[in-house]
Amino acid sequence: MKQVVSGQDLIDAGMPQGKWFRDALDAANTVLSEGGSMEGALEAARAFQPGPTLALRADNDIEIYSNIRAENAFEQDNVEKVNATMRALVRTPVVRSAAIMPDACPAGPIGTIPVGGVVASEAIHPGMHSADICCSMAISIFPDVDPKALLDAVHAVTHFGPGGRPRGAQFKPSQATLSAFQQNPYLRDGALSAGIEHFATQGDGNHFAYVGTMKSTGETALVTHHGSRAPGARLYDKGMKVANRFREQLSPQTHRENAWIPADTEEGDLYWSALQTIRQWTKENHYVLHDMAAARLSAKVADRFWNEHNFVFRKSDGLFYHGKGATPAFDKWAEDATDLTIIPLNMAEPILIVRGSNAAHGLGFSPHGAGRNFSRSAHMRRLAEEYGADARGLSPNNLADVLKKETAGLDVRFFSGFADASELPSAYKSAANVRAQIEHYGLAEVVDEVVPFGSIMAGDWQRDAPWRKRRERR
């Protein structure tokens, strides 16, 4: 009778049962079919046995540098939640250090990196840059251009809302960027077509185009805020799947959102390369909009720079620094880095131009904005209680009152035609408090400001969505 190695044979030999048994049994039975011994077959199977898994770190193993203070009861609740999620996160075995920025707020179940969180790790964690990879800021200076003319030009050329530009109205990234997409297996399928469809678009949520004047010179400036759109989201999805396969093998106890891709693997090399390609796509995505506005006005751009605030950076110590809603403030954070970065606060406040201080207690980062104390839905409930609401939320008249109160004197526009009250200044933390905490903790030096004239956001593009109308009829 032909001898066959069974799963029970592996268990009897002291091997822990798992998904790896299938490959192990194939290898063992190949040895037997080629005339090998049972001992040789079991040795071949044992080669597939996963190594010991990594246990979670103990509480307080990793120091968390806190650069945030509560100014009121709402902020105290927010700070406690941020601290709790960071304490759970730093139990991840490969995490080496962490910091909290003044604009921090929770962004998921406990253990998920908060917005305003910075984590240094031996590996790359897709969940720590999230789906909005390379969410970033870009500024261009337009001398001798009227702010309203620039805002009108931007409104005419940009694209907000879900999806990309329709066929016939699409633009292509550079050939170098397209080639990089084609060469990387993380980007070749799906992300490549999305990289064309979503190019020269800004998305929704808190993304914006903002026009103002430089406090130092009076020159007109355009500032845009958006990430990598669908190409980045698709890379994130693939990265999370790969990271979770490693998590199941290396550290099943690790929180799913903190799964990692080891740096010293082919998967790690390819993912790191894909991140750099997505970064280049996003930079081009900012500047194509700025250039289209300049062309419409026959104007010249005198100066420009940009920075991401939702990305992964590798420092000379070999660690990967994940900034989830955190602005790099260390020297030479990228090959194209200037010594200045951009921190927005809200549509009614100046945008800060800062020089980073590379503070050790901030792991070399500064805040990325004002942050929230409340989720969008919670903020809308508060506005409805204060102003009154209809079935769709704030009534048009009440929404007009809120807009008048919070954006007086500004040219505030919503691309969809419907204002999004969840993005008004009251949805965010006090800009003055965040600015004061930047100074208090020594995270950056404010060197200039963009004084607001007006801005464009996606707005409530779902207000007339079919699903919402069906719900109202019911």
Automatic annotation (TrEMBL):
Cofactor annotation: Mn(2+)
InterPro entries: RtcB, RtcB-like, RtcB-like_sf
Presence of the UniProt keyword 4Fe-4S in the record: no
Keyword set, alphabetical order: GTP-binding, Ligase, Manganese, Metal-binding, Nucleotide-binding, RNA repair
Reaction catalyzed: a 3'-end 3'-phospho-ribonucleotide-RNA + a 5'-end dephospho-ribonucleoside-RNA + GTP = a ribonucleotidyl-ribonucleotide-RNA + GMP + diphosphate
Gene3D superfamilies: tRNA-splicing ligase RtcB (3.90.1860.10)
EC number(s) recorded for this UniProt protein: 6.5.1.8
Keyword Cytoplasm: no
Origin superkingdom: Bacteria
SUPFAM superfamilies attached to this UniProt entry: Hypothetical protein PH1602 (SSF103365)
GO molecular-function term, one example from the UniProt record: ligase activity
Record-given protein name: 3'-phosphate/5'-hydroxy nucleic acid ligase
Organism listed in the record: Shinella yambaruensis
